[in-house]
From TrEMBL:
Gene3D superfamilies: 3.40.50.880, Homeodomain-like
Family matches, as SUPFAM superfamilies: Class I glutamine amidotransferase-like, Homeodomain-like
Keywords, sorted A to Z: DNA-binding, Transcription, Transcription regulation
Chloroplast among keywords: no
Signal peptide positions (record): none
Boundaries of every HTH araC/xylS-type domain copy: 225-323
Record's protein name: Helix-turn-helix domain-containing protein
PROSITE patterns for this protein: HTH_ARAC_FAMILY_1, HTH_ARAC_FAMILY_2
Length: 336
């Protein structure tokens, strides 16, 4: 009797683009090698392919030969879909019908269903995410939400545990979720020791919101562009809606409507986003103390900066700086 049988799906006729090997290797590394000194027996790993092996992978990439086909999902306690082919995400190419049917059978039989990164699209096609909160890599969450409106997509988290269905963001977030599964199955001590052997933290603070790039604001050069550019260079000032409206030669009500139409945010929301982005830039590029960064970004105090950072990004400014340290210690350039 093992700690559980984990069936890992290799999609696209067992031809795996090199980029997708990362999530696949995470699942194999966590659940494959026996760790008898931590838990004996360990997991039983099944690598299950969706087609017959043979030929070169896409772009000359490697081809994996798996000992199991999709029938290997039968009887597994956990089924993991590490990723799906890029064309199924970006071009809407259908996933193999036999894969979707196998996922549904496994779920109906009581298996715990798990996706890493774009594997969420396979679970969504199978209807296993309907009405559930789920996530994927932040670059694909908008597409996941648009294509499957019954899924409650959360783009800000590293992973979502919804009991018998779990989803993660991309790349290293897949490792976070796999360690979480070990923690659920075998306890915190085993998960912590395994994380130490893999030289990774057993639990990372925050979510993937801290890794999402702030989008470049939409420009409106006829009216809002110049005033928004001006505001970004004067974020240390106590700016108000009236100040910005006056500079744009608009009434506050008109300015509110125009900014909402152009950016999708209210003036106060837009200012907060810009100030947080300014703080992120200073944390990544300078060794200024948190108090000074709060002043330069217009958030006033270190406590106020921490409050908004944790609320928006899920981590403290100090934790963010440790995750994205300055390349070289320096002070901020002169000026604002």
């Amino acid at each position: 009797m093992s700690a559980g049988t984990v069936a890992v799906v290799v999609a696209e006729d067992i031809q795996v683009p090199s980029w997708d090997l990362y999530e696949l290797s995470i699942a194999c590394t966590v659940f494959g090698p026996a760790q008898a000194d931590l838990a004996d027996p360990w997991y039983e790993l099944r690598l299950c392919g969706t087609g017959a092996p043979g030929g070169a992978g896409p772009g000359g990439g490697p081809v994996l030969r798996t000992p199991y086909g999709l029938d290997g999902l039968d009887g597994a306690g956990t089924v993991i879909v590490p990723s799906v082919p890029d064309a199924c995400v970006t071009e809407g190419r259908p996933l193999p019908g036999e894969l979707i049917a196998a996922l549904r059978r496994a779920h109906d039989a009581g298996a715990r269903m798990v996706s890493l990164c774009t594997g969420a699209f396979a679970l969504a096609v199978a209807g296993l995410l309907d009405g559930r909160r789920a996530t994927a890599h932040w670059m694909h969450t908008a597409e996941l939400a648009a294509r499957y409106p019954r899924v409650r997509v959360d783009p800000a988290v590293l992973y979502v545990d919804d009991g018998d269905v779990l989803t993660s963001a991309g790349l290293t977030a897949g490792l976070d979720l796999c360690l979480h599964l070990v923690r659920r199955d075998l306890g915190a001590h085993v998960a912590n020791q395994l994380a130490r052997r893999m030289v990774v933290p057993a639990h990372r603070p925050g979510g993937q919101a801290q890794f999402i790039e702030a989008p470049v604001p939409v420009r409106d050069d006829e009216g809002l562009g110049p005033v928004l550019d001006w505001a970004r260079t004067h974020l240390d000032r106590p700016l108000t809606v009236a100040d910005l409206a006056r500079r744009a030669a608009m009434s506050p009500r008109t300015f509110y409507r125009r900014l909402r139409a152009v950016t999708g945010a209210t003036p106060l929301q837009w200012l907060l986003e810009q100030r947080l982005q300014r703080a992120r830039t200073l944390l990544e590029s300078t060794d200024l103390p948190i108090e000074r960064i709060a002043e330069r970004s217009g958030l006033g105090t270190a406590n106020n900066l921490r409050h908004h950072f944790v609320r928006q990004l899920g981590v403290s400014p100090g934790a963010y700086r440790r995750a994205f340290p300055p390349a070289l210690p320096s002070t901020a350039p002169a000026g604002r």
